[in-house]
Design brief:
0% strand; mainly alpha
Length: 1420
């Protein structure tokens, strides 16, 4: 044998041996231990590399099949376990250095010709992967830095080609998958043996029992043998990036790295990064099966390559020389000049601006993203300095920014910065095309965001030491945004917001244009645009609130609103979000400034709106010539425009006055006088508007007497336009009047120094018989005197609502003045109440209900029912005494009807009729109104009676038919089921229609059959009045089926639907057996059979819940069916049967099983306990359960403490066990009397893990602990007297945990996981409320709870939404604190914590306490 194999080396070198045989010999030599070659591994590698090199140098000629075979042979060698094992042992094995260039040429060839490449792409990539997987082998590339750069560039190009041709990549890649197998077949089977002995080729062609090492056992795990996918290209790319990074970091010359990366890698790397990023948020690359994590890893490596190569610390001097003006850089350069590249910025920008390296349609996108990325890297490298150099570093970053923005082709004018000079060699700058504005603004937004986060703009330093160079640049950028306004792009608003956050003075000269383009006249109603616009406006309000310059802002805003324009296309001036932000800002605004803005609004109405409405008034008669008609059209259009502006201004004034701090006895006298003057001016404006409407009624009298002429198509409808402006003017006048009356009354109630507009009547006036102004006003409202005949309130939903609000306000004023109360007044109030309830307005629309956003300006025909219903329900205690029985019954019918037709509403802040009714039903208000409560119960009872009557009629008519159908169905199903259930062999069961999914259907059929038979038997027994004998026709079928289910349900993995239907069948069968055994003569035999089935079912359920193939979600899904089964088992359970169940449970609560890793067996007992607590038990069984409950609680407490030490058991075991304990606590109210057991449970809750959990697990653990605490507070309050400290220790863990998890984390604050922490913060707020409700147990500990809260709060910066709920919760505890507690906290807390407490207590006093005292003041 040795003689045979020793000649292989000579045959490999021989020119006479065919290449096909050489390839077979080489394979055999590698795998055979009997082939003795000195340094065999190196010899065979050299032979293969020499053959390939000779072929491509045209020195050796062989077929294409041999060429592919050689590449595959090299690939197999490089991935061989044997080779890698030798390398690990330290043996030197290497490839020729020219193999690197050979591989680079092949990659270039693959990228150029694609599927027509002579060698499969996957084979070349696999060879590269084999080389890069070992440091010794990768030395063919790593010994020369230029080779690594070239390799990375070619791999990037190949990857970009795959990503950019989703429709063309399938062909080459599919060919790559199959060509390797084809060439192996050709090489090993199709070629002649050329006289070789069959024993030599047998191991290769047939793979003997000791299988070919090269084909199987010799493979390195890193090599994917079968079906190389497109994603393998990116795996190789990631490997090459990692290898390249290690080589790049070892380079001693940063100039060389910069030059090579700039010239060869910047463009392909940035293009690849863009393609990977864009593919992450869409599905164009699904055919590549590219894993998201792999894509992210590649992008991270690309960022590292660019960051380290382009912005090293050694190049800081070069960047300074190029970017900083000479006067600013004098004295800052080190001796010897710069060592870096001459102009790095120009070099980078020239590559980014250059075209040709990607699709022209994609070029701007790649460039804009790259510019933002370069700025981010620049800030990370050079943005931080120490001492005096920090400012210089930030200025350097700014000058780099000024070179990036012009590269986006956005036109910047009016400023001079050295860095704006065009890049040498680059094409002349062009204006950004319209289709690229979205990309340009996104890039500008990103650049400005980086500027903000890096804090490179120091306003003071820029003004004093740098001649406002930054301010001028940002100012030019802002002017560009206004000159090239893009209000339909969300990024445009975000850019303005960023400039506003940098310095409000940047945009202040253009404040009028900002108000116009971004607020008043922004017509795009797309949701994303509206969101961005709202954030900008809110930021604008907050900025000018902090500057105490709200009058300045609203002065510009009012001038924009009053400009001549047709307002029909304008969006609402105050959306829900903007109105909420304005209300918050006004809380921090001095009252004098708020009143000043209100005066500006009234001045705008009198100066710009009223003249248009009054001066343009003309009489409309029947005869008009064409010139007069055109003039009238123009006049009415101007009046319509003015009326729409009047509505906007009145809504703005309404929000301002309803959000300002009210006057009180501590208000300074100048503020009181200012308020007095404002209200007087407002009343004057209202009177002028009402006078205008009343006089205009006479002016159009001639037209109102005759029907208006219907306009022809294209003809202007003058009457419609006249009606429009008058209707809008009336709405505005009513809103102003309602606002004036409401605010005037509020000022009068709270401030004794304020004199109301309608002072109470004097004694002299009363003697003369003059009625009170309030009663007179009510009469005018009810009679409609203030509404022109052609402007009925019912025609305008907003006017209708405002009339009702005015009537309600006057009703309140009458009830406050006891001197006005009389029988006549009571009758008048009854009329007012009927007017407010309004029979025609209480009907619920059958089409569906529309959401009302609580904004009075958004009331229309769709949202009016919700707005009106809210008005009625929120004032029911006031209206109820004056409502007739008919009105009360109608309100009750609306409550019931809306609840029965309730629709799901996804919004959080909107109101619907059904939602309001639901809240009313849950509130204590309804119970306190006996008449309405009784009417609601009567209405609901009548609905139930109607349903029952209809059902009874149906039952009588269908009873006999249904009984016959049941009998026939059962008789026909029996034989069919029996034929299906015949015993089957294993091979037959595969084709059985009842297997797997069909089994669930089969079990459901049998269950229905059993139920049908029971129903028919019961119906016949009742009909014959003889139910003594109850027998089933197919008893043997049901019994056999039951035993089969008991055997199969836990034997192997089963579908969920089969498990659920099986549990339902067992429940139905046990119930049927219970009925039939109770009627048998042989009761002893029947009872024994029932006991056996009882125990079998319990054991089966226990085994099922311990099944390893059931997940936690599967167990939760099974719980309702298991509980139903337990309820049937225990409904008539004997004491002996129940004791068997208790033994099963106590035996399962074995901590030894948990420690041994068999937690599922313990979990089964835990789940059964939870379900058992909720079952209705016979009296003796219930006593037995609660007698043993302390033992069960103690066992589960030890289980929780033990499982809490293993975090991996938190979700599958610890949380279900805690929930089971909580169920015991809830059901054990009145049964668990020993406080010691509850204290034990608190100890278990204290040990539940809450740290370092993923959000889903954290939410489950947090909820379980919270529910346990809540059960203790709710069901065992007597324990809290002694266990309050232990209770608070557990609750403090929840508080500290949610504060840690709910801290601000940047982008993560708005991700999907943020909802988890928001819900947990709501639970903490809820628990604070329950603690405050049981104040007697926590009175002495309230100060301690506040101290704990502020101590934790001082450590973190919470997300606003989380902080809102936690703050509302701690306010409830502050309500419990007395003055002594506050003094104790102020004196005892440490300095930093004390500041946090002072801020908290200040906000509590300012917002919560004042609101609570106000509510108490109005509580009757």
């Amino acid at each position: 044998m040795a003689a045979i194999y020793s000649g292989i080396h000579l045959k490999l070198k021989s020119h006479q041996t065919p290449w096909e045989d050489k390839l077979k010999l080489a394979r055999f030599a590698w795998i055979s231990a009997q082939c003795l070659l000195p340094n065999k591994e190196q010899v065979l590698l050299d032979w293969c590399a020499h053959a390939l090199t000779g072929h491509y140098n045209q020195k050796v000629a062989f077929s294409q099949d041999v060429l592919e075979g050689l590449w595959c042979y090299l690939d197999d060698l490089l991935h061989s376990r044997k080779l890698h094992s030798l390398l690990k042992q330290g043996k030197t094995v290497s490839l020729r250095l020219n193999m690197a260039q050979l591989l680079l040429d092949r990659l270039q060839e693959c990228a150029r010709v694609g599927p027509k490449s002579p060698v499969c792409v996957s084979t070349i990539l696999s060879v590269c992967q084999g080389l890069l997987s070992s440091p010794a082998l990768s030395s063919v590339f790593t010994t020369k830095y230029e080779l690594m750069v070239d390799l990375l560039a070619k791999l990037c190009s190949l990857a970009c080609r795959e990503l950019q041709q989703p429709l063309l990549t399938e062909a080459p890649l599919a060919e790559s998958i199959t060509c390797g197998d084809e060439e192996m077949t050709l090489c090993l089977q199709s070629q002649p043996t050329s006289g070789l002995d069959s024993s030599q080729i047998e191991p290769i062609t047939e793979s003997p029992p000791d299988e070919s090492e090269l084909d199987a056992g010799d493979k390195c795990p890193a090599k994917p043998k079968d079906n190389l996918r497109a994603a393998d290209l990116f795996e190789v790319l990631l490997q090459a990036l990692s290898c390249y990074l290690s080589v790049q970091r070892q380079q001693a010359n940063p100039n060389r790295v910069f030059t090579l990366v700039t010239n060869q890698l910047v463009q392909p790397l940035l293009l690849l990064r863009h393609l990977l990023t864009s593919g992450e948020f869409s599905t164009p690359h699904t055919h590549l099966r590219l894993r998201p994590q792999l894509s992210r890893d590649i992008r991270v490596k690309i960022d590292s390559v660019l960051h380290i190569a382009l912005f090293p610390s050694e190049h800081l001097t070069s960047y300074k020389e190029e970017l900083l003006p000479s006067k600013e850089d004098s004295g800052k350069r080190g001796p010897g000049g710069a060592k870096g590249p001459l102009k790095p910025v120009s070099a980078i920008l020239s590559k980014l601006i250059a075209e040709g390296y990607c699709d022209p349609a994609m070029h701007y996108n790649v460039k804009s993203n790259a510019l933002s990325l370069m700025f981010k890297f620049f800030l990370e490298s050079y943005g931080k300095g120490r001492g005096e150099s920090e400012e210089a570093h930030k200025m350097l970053c700014f000058y780099f920014l000024t070179r990036l923005v012009p590269a986006l082709d956005v036109p910047l004018d009016g400023h001079s910065v050295k860095a704006e000079q065009p890049v040498s060699g680059s094409p002349p700058a062009t204006v950004c095309p319209p289709e690229s504005w979205s990309l340009a603004l996104l890039a500008v937004e990103s650049l400005l965001s980086h500027t903000l986060s890096a804090d490179i703009y120091n306003v003071t330093a820029d003004k004093i030491r740098h001649g406002e160079v930054q301010f001028n640049f940002y100012r030019a950028l802002g002017q560009m945004l206004f000159n090239q306004a893009q209000p339909s792009i969300p990024a445009w608003y975000r850019c303005l917001k960023a400039l506003l956050n940098l310095n409000h003075l940047i945009l202040e000269p253009d404040l009028d244009q900002l108000s116009s383009s971004a607020w008043v006249h922004s017509e795009c109603m797309e949701a994303r645009v509206q969101r961005a616009r709202q954030l900008l406006v809110c930021s604008l309000l907050q900025t000018y609130t902090k500057l105490r310059q709200l009058p300045r802002l609203f002065s510009e805003l009012l001038s924009v609103i009053c400009q001549p324009a047709l307002d029909e296309l304008r969006p609402p001036l105050l959306s829900q979000g903007v109105a909420a932000s304005l209300r918050t800002c006004l809380l921090d605004t001095p009252s004098s400034q708020g009143l000043e803005v209100c005066s500006l609004v009234l001045e705008s109405i009198r100066k710009h709106i009223l003249p248009v409405l009054v001066d343009q008034k003309m009489e409309i008669d029947g005869g008009r010539d064409e010139e007069e008609e055109d003039k009238e059209i123009k006049v009415d259009q101007e009046r319509k425009d003015a009326s729409l502006k009047l509505v906007s201004l009145s809504q703005l004034l309404h929000v301002f006055l309803f959000s300002l701090k009210t006057l009180d006895n501590t208000s300074p006298l100048p503020t009181v006088r200012q308020s007095q003057g404002l209200m007087a001016e407002m009343r004057q404006v209202i009177q002028e508007l009402l006078h205008l409407l009343s006089t205009d009624k006479k002016a159009v009298k001639t037209n109102t007497n005759s029907a208006p002429k219907t306009p022809r198509k294209g003809e202007y409808n003058l009457f419609s336009e006249t009606k429009m402006w008058a209707q809008k003017t009336q709405e505005a006048a009513l809103l102003l009047r309602y606002t004036c009356v409401e605010v005037d009354t509020l000022f009068y109630i709270h401030c004794s120094k304020y004199i109301p507009l309608d002072a109470p009547p004097t004694a002299a006036a009363s003697e003369t018989g003059d009625p009170a102004p309030t009663l007179t006003c009510i009469e005018s409202l009810l009679s409609g005197e203030i509404s022109p005949a052609r402007l009925q309130p019912s025609r305008s939903p907003l006017s209708c609502l405002l009339f009702k609000l005015l009537a309600l306000q006057q009703m309140k004023k009458v009830m406050l003045d006891t001197s006005l109360l009389s029988p006549a007044t009571a009758a008048l109030l009854t009329r007012v109440a009927e007017f407010i309830v309004a029979k025609s307005d209480s009907a619920v629309s059958p089409v569906g209900e529309q959401v009302w956003d609580r904004q009075i300006g958004s009331v229309n025909a769709g949202s009016y029912p919700a707005a009106h219903w809210y008005l009625v329900t929120s004032n029911l205690p006031l209206l109820a005494p004056y409502l007739s029985g008919e009105d009360v019954g109608r309100i009750a019918d609306v409550i019931v009807s809306s609840l029965l037709s309730r629709q799901t509403h996804r919004g959080n802040d909107g109101l619907t009729v059904s939602l309001i009714s639901s809240q009313l039903l849950q509130s204590p208000v309804l119970v306190e109104l006996p008449a309405l409560f009784s009417a609601t119960v009567r209405s609901l009872t009548q609905r139930i009676i109607d349903v029952l009557k209809a059902a009874q009629v149906l039952k009588v008519s269908m009873d006999q038919t249904l009984t016959q159908m049941l009998t026939r169905t059962t008789a026909s199903l029996g034989p069919a089921i029996q034929s299906v259930l015949k015993p089957q062999t294993v091979s037959q069961s595969v084709f059985q229609p009842a297997s797997f999914l069909g089994q669930a259907f089969l079990v459901e059929v049998v269950t229905v059959m059993l139920s049908c038979e029971l129903s028919s038997q019961s119906a016949e027994g009742e009909k014959e009045h003889n139910a003594s004998e109850l027998t089933l026709s197919h008893t043997s079928l049901y019994q056999g089926f039951c035993q089969q289910i008991l055997r199969e349900i836990t034997s192997a993995h089963r579908p969920m639907d089969f498990l659920l239907t099986s549990l339902r069948f067992l429940s139905a069968f046990y119930k049927a057996l219970e009925k039939t055994s109770g009627e048998r003569e042989d009761e002893e035999k029947g009872g024994k059979e029932l006991d056996e089935l009882y125990m079998q079912i319990l054991q089966t359920v226990h085994r099922l819940l311990t099944a390893s193939w059931l997940s936690s979600n599967d167990v939760c899904e099974l719980e309702p069916a298991v509980q139903e089964l337990l309820c049937h088992l225990l409904e008539k359970s004997s004491t002996g049967q129940f004791n068997l169940l208790l033994l099963l449970i106590t035996g399962g609560l074995d901590i030894g099983k948990l420690r041994a890793g068999s937690y599922r067996e313990v979990l089964s007992a835990v789940v059964i306990i939870k379900l058992l607590c909720c079952c209705h038990l016979p009296e003796q069984c219930s006593k037995a359960l609660w007698l043993i409950a302390p033992q069960i609680i103690s066992a589960m407490v030890f289980l929780v403490r033990s499982s809490s030490q293993d975090v991996s058991l938190t979700l599958p075991f610890t949380v279900p066990t805690v929930m089971s304990i909580t169920s015991l606590l809830r059901q054990g109210e009145g049964h668990i009397t020993n406080p010691h057991h509850v204290v034990l449970i608190l100890g278990a809750l204290q040990s539940v893990p809450l740290d370092h959990l993923i959000p889903s697990v954290y939410q489950s653990a947090f909820l379980s602990v919270h529910e346990g605490l809540f059960a203790i507070v709710q069901c065992h309050p007597q324990v809290m007297l002694n266990a309050a400290p232990s209770f608070l220790n557990v609750f403090h863990r929840l508080l500290a945990s949610i504060m840690q998890e709910g801290r601000q984390r940047g982008d993560a604050d708005t991700g999907p996981d943020s909802v988890v922490y928001l819900q947990c913060s709501r639970l903490v707020e809820r628990m604070y409320s329950h603690i405050a409700a049981t104040a007697e147990s926590f009175t002495t500990l309230s100060a301690f709870m506040v101290a704990q809260y502020v101590t934790e709060l001082q450590k973190v910066t919470l997300r606003p939404d989380v902080k809102l709920h936690l703050t509302e919760g701690i306010y409830r505890i502050l309500d419990l604190c007395v003055e002594q507690d506050i003094k104790f906290l102020t004196a005892g807390l440490q300095m930093g914590v004390r500041e946090v407490f002072n801020e908290l207590y200040s906000s509590y006093t300012h917002y919560h306490k004042a609101q609570r005292q106000g509510e108490e003041k109005y509580t009757v």
